[in-house]
Write a structure and sequence with these properties.
The protein is an alpha/beta fold. The chain has two domains: 12-184, 3-Layer(aba) Sandwich (Rossmann fold); 189-380, Dehydroquinate synthase-like - alpha domain (Dehydroquinate synthase-like, alpha domain). Helices cover 49% and strands 11% of the residues. The strands form two sheets. It has a six-stranded parallel beta sheet, with helices on both faces. A two-stranded antiparallel sheet has the order 6-7. Helix 6 (189-208) runs antiparallel to helix 7. The chain is globular, with a radius of gyration of 20 Å. The model has no long low-confidence stretch (mean pLDDT 96).
Length: 388
């Protein structure tokens, strides 16, 4: 491993119960008078959202609400949001919600700053020049999983191609993040579980990614510890403030760490989500043990070190057993059949997975045949032989 890397640490974060009350003052400090608030239909109906809008108005900031987006944001959602931004004369964006609301809000910021197609900003390409700077983005996550609040990338679906695109621009990194656990109290137990497993997947793949980034490694290990110590509590006692706060921290840490790398969990999850509309965190959770088993020959020593740090016995096997036990406690299904994936789709999914931009960063090189083998194992529910 070459001891050389380009490292980025995220933006300013206000963490703690009740910190949402500081949002209007921080927006107003930029001289902003009109904002577009981007969220999903579910969050739009919650009482705290009305409180945020009222607080902005009281501070002399006129908000317009955009909530017409899909669970996985699509190109048409982003373009409609960009039109709403311009119609309101907005000067900044406040993105509130889970991954869909945050990604859509950040992508709207990109869309209003360029005349180019969104796909020109795919992560695999050279970053084009913007027509104008991306407006300030404020991010308020209401789930503890995606970590989009601390990222420079977004995921947007091209419905015609049935493909998830990862878009990247440094200016999409939010200027300010508010991690307020009180905004997550009402999450359904299943969403708490799925998003928490998403945070774990980010930390895990970042940690065993094959690059030199000791800062990301340290963040990833602590993120995994926070998941280990808090996810089941957040799942079973949803108003436990400490567990909710620690899971929000773990989510932001996972996305901070995965600037180092992601891998085949995400390479496989992206096409499954685009084609079968499966929740991203749930898909990651289902695929996780199969990816671990496939990567074992290349990560066994590193995962033994992780197991020791987390207080797990028996090295790699102990870590894998903990993942399986955690999934069971959270009612995560064991096979991709539960995600509505059909056997006839596996060949196409494997082809799309091997082309995913995360695939080259997996610690074990993965061919299309390997991707198919992982999918077949995840359909059958067997881990045997994947490490061969």
């Amino acid at each position: 491993m070459e001891l050389r890397g380009n490292w980025r640490i995220p933006t300013e974060i206000l963490a703690g119960a009740g910190r949402i009350a500081e949002l209007p003052e921080r927006v107003g400090a930029l001289g902003v008078k009109r904002v577009l608030v981007v969220t999903d239909p579910g969050v739009a109906g919650l009482p705290f959202l009305a409180g945020i809008l009222a607080a902005l108005e009281k501070a002399g900031i006129a908000p317009a609400l955009f909530k017409d987006l899909h669970p996985d944001p699509q190109q048409q959602d982003v373009l409609a949001g960009a039109a709403a931004y311009k119609a309101h004369g907005a000067e900044a964006i406040i993105a509130i919600g889970g991954g869909s609301g945050l990604d859509c809000g950040k992508s709207i910021g990109l869309a209003v700053s360029t005349s180019r197609p969104l796909w020109d900003f795919e992560i695999t390409q050279a970053t084009p020049v913007l027509d104008s700077p991306i407006p300030p983005i404020f991010a308020v996550p209401t789930t503890a999983g995606t970590g989009s609040e601390v990222g420079r990338a977004t995921v947007v679906i091209d419905t015609e191609k049935r493909r998830k695109y990862i878009l990247l621009h440094a200016q999409m990194l939010p200027r300010l993040v508010i991690l307020d656990p009180e905004l997550t109290y009402g999450l359904p137990a299943a969403i708490t579980a799925w998003t928490g497993m998403d945070a774990l997947a980010h930390c895990l793949e970042a940690y065993y990614g094959p690059f030199y980034h000791p800062i990301a490694d340290g963040i990833a290990i602590e993120g995994m510890r926070l998941v280990k110590d808090n996810l089941i509590t957040a799942f079973s006692a949803p108003r436990n403030t400490a567990a909710r706060m620690n899971m929000l921290a773990a989510a932001s840490m996972g996305a901070t760490a995965f600037q180092k790398a992601l891998g085949v969990i995400h390479s496989l999850s992206h096409p499954i989500g685009a084609r079968f509309h499966a929740h991203h965190g749930l898909t990651n959770a289902v695929l996780m043990p199969y990816a671990l088993a496939f990567n074992r020959p290349f990560i066994e020593a590193k995962m033994a070190a992780a197991a020791q740090s987390l207080g797990l016995a028996n090295g790699f096997d102990g870590f894998l057993s903990w993942v399986l036990e955690l999934r069971s406690a959270l009612n995560i299904p064991h096979t991709i059949e539960a995600l509505k994936v059909t056997p006839d789709a596996l060949e196409e999914l494997a082809a799309e997975a091997v082309a995913d931009p995360n695939t080259p960063d997996n610690p074990r090189p993965a061919t299309q045949a390997d991707m198919l083998r992982i999918l077949q194992a995840a359909m059958a529910g067997t881990l045997a032989g994947l490490g061969d």
